[in-house]
Design goal:
229 residues, alpha+beta, 7-stranded mixed β-sheet, 11 strands, 19% strand, binds 2-acetamido-2-deoxy-beta-D-glucopyranose, xenobiotic transmembrane transporter activity, membrane
Length: 229
């Protein structure tokens, strides 16, 4: 029997798991970059402040309202010379309320709201349209200096997901005016035509690919050594 050598796969796996855990913990503690995109903190009379103070578990940090897990539920980037919300904007996809008024935004930022399925109140300047258009929202209200887009509509209901999604997929909302097709349980791939479990592959694909390649490498070298000895 070949002797067991240091660096065999069983040593690598726990080490990698510890590292991943440590990285995860660090990410949870740090304030998301999008909260610091604009200087200062949220104004006292902002809708985001009012929303945040209404619920005791929520806290204001820079431009964000966070829950106890550090998840963004409110974001206020008003009056900060933004032409677009920037590459970190998707960090706020969990937000229920967002204020972007008094910014020189370009009117083509609808796509940046992909995945913002929780968003119920969006405050904008009057010169840009609510993302997804007027039909994507329950109410759009114009005020003197701003407008509010209120309550996302579920477009899957109106457009009929039979036409849009394949046989073994179904339509789910994916932000204002946006939807996507999700394959039914046990289906995956192009047009949801492939059958079989996919979740295990995804798991390994994200977490384990590095670990796995190191393990295979070590396994290979070890086997070669075992043969020559
Ligand atoms: C926007 O910010 C500037 C300073 O950066 C301030 O003078 C101005 O009053 C602010 N406007 C609004 C509407 O808050
Ligand atoms: C919108 O602008 C009006 C002034 O026209 C102001 O009173 C109101 O607070 C603003 N709304 C929000 C949500 O900031
Ligand atoms: C979908 O529409 C039906 C009637 O058209 C309604 O009863 C149902 O509540 C709607 N569902 C959603 C999720 O909007
Ligand atoms: C959808 O699933 C059923 C079995 O549940 C299967 O018979 C059918 O061929 C599938 N459709 C497609 C387009 O893959």
């Amino acid at each position: 029997m070949a002797p067991r050598r240091l660096g065999s796969p069983s040593f690598v796996v726990p080490w990698a798991a510890t590292l991943l855990l440590a990285l995860g913990a660090e990410r949870a503690l740090a304030l998301p970059e999008i909260c610091m995109l604009c200087p200062g903190s949220v104004r006292d009379l902002s809708q985001v402040t009012l929303y945040c103070k209404r619920t005791p578990e929520l806290m204001l940090h820079s431009r964000c309202c966070l829950n106890q897990e550090g998840t963004i539920v409110g974001l206020d980037l008003q009056n900060c010379s933004l032409k677009d919300p920037g590459p970190n904007f998707p960090q706020a996809h969990t937000a229920v309320i967002i204020d972007l008024q008094a910014n020189p935004l370009k009117d083509d930022f609808a796509k940046t709201f992909r995945g913002f399925t929780q968003l119920q109140t969006l405050i904008l300047s009057q010169d840009v349209s609510c993302p997804g258009g007027i039909n994507a929202w329950n109410t759009v209200t114009f005020y003197k200096n701003n407008q509010t887009c209120q309550g996302q509509r579920n477009l899957c209901n109106s457009t009929g997901d039979q036409e849009m999604c394949p046989e073994n997929g179904s339509c789910v909302p994916d932000g204002p005016g946006l939807m996507e097709c999700v394959c039914a349980d046990g289906f995956h791939g192009y047009k949801c035509m492939r059958q079989g479990s996919f979740s295990l592959v995804t798991f390994f694909g994200i977490l384990g690919s590095t670990t796995l390649s190191i393990s295979i490498l070590l396994w290979g070298t070890q086997r070669r050594k075992a043969k020559t000895s």
